[in-house]
């Protein structure tokens, strides 16, 4: 709205600006719902072109998308050979018409740089989705008993981590500090 006003002197309502942006995104990137239908083909080509890559899609009885998982072969090889098995897991909500949640597991490499590890996506952040994601995660780790999993202690994550009985668990210091500020004001 501001760009149109400043550059062209056109005043747009919020609704018109939103619909215009939506139309442009549709023209540039295509229909968001059709992209889910292409996911199987994309994952197939990802595995074919990237040796060692593991992907998985789960759908429900109505053939609706439920969960997705992706671990690139080069990341798997690097993780299982040279990366410290200190894994941080978290989720972020996707802001689009389709919605959903992106589940991520990351580590740090020897240079203290973030090492993207595995990705998942689902409709909601709950115990079932975290358990499914962490089971897929377990498939690509050579020694899951040596892991340390750090999280914000979301109930879904805590329940999902139960599939790793020997793995150590830690709490994210950032989330812990925020919780302390919020709940212990004195």
From TrEMBL:
Protein source organism: Dipteronia dyeriana
Protein name: MULE transposase domain-containing protein
Domain MULE transposase per the UniProt entry, residue ranges: 86-179
Top-level taxonomic group: Eukaryota
Top-level taxonomy: Eukaryota, Viridiplantae, Streptophyta, Embryophyta, Tracheophyta
